[in-house]
Amino acid sequence: MRNKSRLFIALCFLLACCTVQAQTSTTNSTPTTAKKMKFLIHITCGPENATKAALGFLVAKTAIDEGHSVTLFLAGDAVTLLKDAELDKVVGLGTGKLREHYEAIAKGGGRFYLSGMSSKARGLADADIAGKPAEFAMPTVLVRLATDSDRMFTY
């Protein structure tokens, strides 16, 4: 009877140790082992909605900070966000300064595409994006970027 009690206690102890180890190993997974993804951030709101525009840039910056690759496609009024005057002026309520987010995105390898039609309609020229990781693009590029991305966010 004593041997059965000892065996039962030993089995309970072993089972408890295995359960703790299994829980520990699943909760200790580090973000560095997570799959790096390709994000497309599509922004259509411009300086008139500073909070939402800055939020799109903040999400892009955050994804880059976490090691993901990020592409932004700006369309509609959002194309004006890459003008230096707007980069310096736009500050979102709780979403930060557009210039700071832009600098982090550019430094982290992020790429910007601006709708060519939206840019033309709003008077943007090559000079407005000179020296920036940006280019004008047609809707076919947006479709290609969307199909090539793992995740897409729209602001």
From TrEMBL:
<feature type="signal peptide">
    <location>
        <begin position="1"/>
        <end position="22"/>
    </location>
</feature>
<dbReference type="InterPro" id="IPR003787">
    <property type="entry name" value="Sulphur_relay_DsrE/F-like"/>
</dbReference>
<dbReference type="Pfam" id="PF02635">
    <property type="entry name" value="DsrE"/>
</dbReference>
<keyword id="KW-0732">Signal</keyword>
<dbReference type="InterPro" id="IPR027396">
    <property type="entry name" value="DsrEFH-like"/>
</dbReference>
<protein>
    <submittedName>
        <fullName>Multidrug transporter</fullName>
    </submittedName>
</protein>
